Amino acid sequence: MADKKEQLSIKITDPEIIEMVEGIAQEEHRTNHNTVVHILKLHFEAMQMARSSQ
Questions:
Q1: Cα(54)–Cα(25) distance, rounded to whole angstroms?
Q2: Do 12 and 25 meet the contact criterion of CB atoms below 8 Å apart?
Q3: CA dist., res. 43 & res. 18, Å (int)
Q4: Contact at 8 Å (CB) between 42 and 21?
Q5: What is the pTM of this model?
């Protein structure tokens, strides 16, 4: 299992991913909590993809 501090310090810099996350945040009509959870899931998936492509 990866170090949690390392995971939390990774920043998303891919403009397409940032745009997608911002779009979802703007369109999200549920609670802020659900939006945050959704963005964290996307972030995790993006990290997985970034690691597997290296």
A1: 29
A2: no
A3: 10
A4: yes
A5: 0.38
